[in-house]
Amino acid sequence: MSTKSAAQWLVGHNRFEQEKTDSSDKKNFGRAKTISITSGKGGVGKTSVTIKLAKLLADKGFKTLVIDCDYNLSNTAIKLGLPLTDNFYSLITAKKTFDECLVKHRGFYLLSGCNGSIDLFNESDGMEKFIIDILVSHEREFDYILLDSPAGIGKENLTINAYSDHRFVVVTPDRSSLTDSYSLMKILTTKYGVSENHLIVNKISSKKQYHRIIKTLGETVDKFLCSRLKVLGGLENQDISVDIFDRHLLDEENSALHRNFVKVVEMFSEENVGILPTISDHGQEVQLNVC
Ligand SMILES: Nc1ncnc2c1ncn2[C@@H]1O[C@H](COP(=O)(O)OP(=O)(O)OP(=O)(O)O)[C@@H](O)[C@H]1O
Ligand SMILES: [Mg+2]
């Protein structure tokens, strides 16, 4: 079987894609859009992207939940300056209800993970099923559920990525980030039948660099994977100290970075309107290899 036909076969037999097809009508009637913010390599900006997008969506009036899927190395609460809790562990052991475990902050809801909990570590087999159960049980209570994923190609992470309606793959100009995210998309496509991903390029230092990245990665996906890559935009590298970045990210609404994020959200909201075959300066959508 050729690579292309094998992938097509998998798409046709993939239960996640099948479920989504079957439930596409249902989705229009009050089911949250689930988005995994994911990457092959760590430290590329997934958590930063997740909390900024959550705030922008909340500001637009959407009821938005963030789940920290890096559930025992949780960073979301830290970035938001919230106290660390054992809520995730309390939820899996049914010591607290889902509602008791949520924190509302900056207009959105957060289910924070734990930080090096031994108890959670001992119980963590099959955690992807637990997270998917949360999605299934609560998808009608939110407009958007953002999943701040751990980096890498662990099966747990890939299963959650594949289950999500959308995957925002975050890359940086670093070559290893591009290679690792390509590997992530390759496995998602060939083993899980995922046929579409979105791309966000973070920490860019010039437009030229950004265009080179989307062209190179786009052409590689186009040539070797039977999947579609939709470019949501680029986020400028901020030359500020790391300790003030998080505050700048959420509070500074007069920055290039904020405008970059607004365009990403607009691009995603408008994407069903039409697919442009060309690459423009911003808000571009590159349709690549619709198999
Ligand atoms: N556009 C940017 N400009 C400058 N620094 C950034 C930018 N985006 C993120 N950072 C910084 O990069 C670092 C990693 O960001 P973040 O924690 O969001 O990445 P991550 O992908 O979630 O990491 P991990 O894989 O460990 O979960 C942080 O110090 C953050 O402040
Ligand atoms: Mg993170």
From TrEMBL:
Q: Which domain of life does the UniProt lineage start with?
A: Bacteria
Single GO biological process annotation from the record: negative regulation of cell division
- What are the record keywords, sorted? ATP-binding, Nucleotide-binding
Domain AAA positions:
33-186
A molecular function (GO) held by this record is: ATP binding
Which InterPro entries did the record assign?
AAA_dom, P-loop_NTPase, ParA/MinD_ATPase
Q: Which GO terms describe its cellular component?
A: cytoplasmic side of plasma membrane; cytosol
Keyword Ubl conjugation tagged: no
The name on file for this protein is: AAA domain-containing protein
